[in-house]
Amino acid sequence: MAEGRRQRVRAKVAKAGIQILAPHEQLEFFIYPFLPRRDTVPIARQLLAVFGSVGNVLGAPYEELIKIKGMPRLAARTLSLLREIVTEECLLCPSFYVHGANQAAGLIYREYATDKKECLFALIMDKDATLLNLIPVWTEDEPFSVMTIIPKIITSMLRAGGDVLLLAHCGAYATEMSNEDESLVAGCVHVFASFKFLLSDYLTITPNGRFRACGFNFNFRRTYLDGKV
Q1: I want to staple 137 with a disulfide (CB 3.0 to 4.6 A). Which of 45, 152, 163, 170 is the partner?
Q2: 3-class secondary structure per residue, 192-224
Q3: How far apart are CA 168 and CA 156, in angstroms?
Q4: Domains of the chain and CATH, by start
């Protein structure tokens, strides 16, 4: 019975992609190779019960995943590493919508909090605010150069097929927009006109999770939102 079900799930993926699967089926699909003869439904459903969503499962550390009853160690290790692939290529989250600066700040802070190096993140979306990619385009290990950062942003936008960009400067001194931040915003706005990209927000996020979001409308007027992740 289990093998027949697996064949049906694999047929769905082959025909329409992994998006067609229910959340627990997506998790089963990843676990199948590690449990070739066992029922994976209980594991998948327990993962969702504990972590809440497929995205949260992929963002969970190995130490938490291995606590799930019946979870193979190699499967837990693989799932914990998939987060990097998802963040880079966005293969598994085609319908994740970013609802405003508060949610964006939470997503970005989770990435920043792994080592808390000063960095600049680019959150790339389509016109419907669907998340396409979330990547660092600068870290404290390199000079903060607008001439270097903007080409990285443009390349990332084109690669992801993005329309809308949100930038976030994270670090101990990122309490408000600096002159460097202002220069980067001005450079992006100037260059984006040629590509018809939109810069929606520029966030500054501190190590304790406090953030300020500077939002831009189509007339480039600014709105501000202060909050905490």
Answers
A1: 152
A2: HHHHCCEEEEEEEECCCCEEEEEEECCCCCEEE
A3: 15
A4: 2-89 (1.10.150), 100-228 (3.40.140.10)
The candidate with the shortest Cα–Cα distance to 135, out of 112, 158, 118, is: 112
Mapped onto helix, strand or coil, the DSSP state of residue 41 is: helix
Rounded Cα distance, 11 and 148, in Å: 45
Q: Is the pTM value of this prediction over 0.70?
A: no
Which residue, 122, 123, 119, is CA-closest to 139? 119
Angle formed by the axes of helices 23-31 and 73-89, nearest 10°: 120
8's CB contacts (< 8 A; 6+ apart) are none
Q: Mean pLDDT of all residues in the chain?
A: 84
Count, in order, helices (H) and strands (E) of the chain.
9, 6
Contact 139, 127 (CB under 8 A): no
The answer to whether the beta carbons of residues 98 and 104 sit under 8 Å apart is yes
Long-range contacts from 133-137, C-beta under 8 angstroms, 24+ separation: 133/87, 133/88, 133/89, 133/90, 133/159, 133/160, 133/162, 134/87, 134/107, 134/108, 135/87, 135/88, 136/111
CA 228 → CA 21, 90, 134, distances in Å? 34, 26, 20
Distance (Å, whole) CA 224 – CA 209: 17
Residue 214 CA to residue 61 CA, distance in Å, equals 32
Cβ atoms of 213 and 166 within 8 Å: the answer is: no
Q: What is the pLDDT of residues 94-136, one digit of tens each?
A: 557 888 888 899 989 988 887 788 999 999 999 988 888 889 9
